């Protein structure tokens, strides 16, 4: 017996179909922006030194550990 109510998977499929026309151009824009930032940083001489400053460990998911 099949139900006419949407299931989890049919809802996911519908969401993906609606999101597909948006996600491709969005990811492309993000990629182009990242490439432009990389180019600007390398041209300005900030390249690796600026990236090294930004590489910090992510805070743990647990609230029990305090981070500075």
Write the layout of secondary structure elements.
Layout: H1 8-44, H2 47-54
Structure at a glance:
The protein is mainly alpha-helical. It is built from two helices and no strands. It has a domain at 20-44.
Distance between the termini: 57 Å
Helical residues, percent: 55-70%
Please tell me the overall pLDDT: 79
The 3D shape can be described as flat
Which spans of ≥5 residues are poorly predicted at pLDDT below 50? none
Task: Note the run of SSEs as H and E.
Answer: HH
Tally the helices: what do you get?
Answer: 2
Based on CA atoms alone, the radius of gyration comes out at: 21 Å
Q: What's the count of strands?
A: 0
Kindly estimate the percentage of residues that lie in beta strands according to DSSP. Answer: under 5%
The biggest sheet amounts to: none
Output the structural class: mainly alpha
How would you describe this structure to a colleague?
The protein is an all-alpha fold. The protein has a domain at 20-44. It is built from two helices and no strands. The chain has helices spanning 8-44, 47-54. The chain is flat and about 60 Å long. The mean pLDDT is 79.
List keywords for this structure.
68 residues, 0% strand
């Amino acid at each position: 017996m099949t139900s006419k109510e949407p299931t989890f998977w049919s809802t996911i499929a519908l969401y993906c179909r609606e999101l597909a026309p948006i996600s491709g151009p969005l990811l492309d824009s993000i990629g182009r922006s990242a490439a432009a930032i990389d180019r600007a940083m390398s041209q300005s001489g900030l390249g690796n030194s600026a990236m090294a400053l930004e590489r910090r460990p992510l805070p743990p998911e647990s609230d029990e550990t305090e981070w500075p």
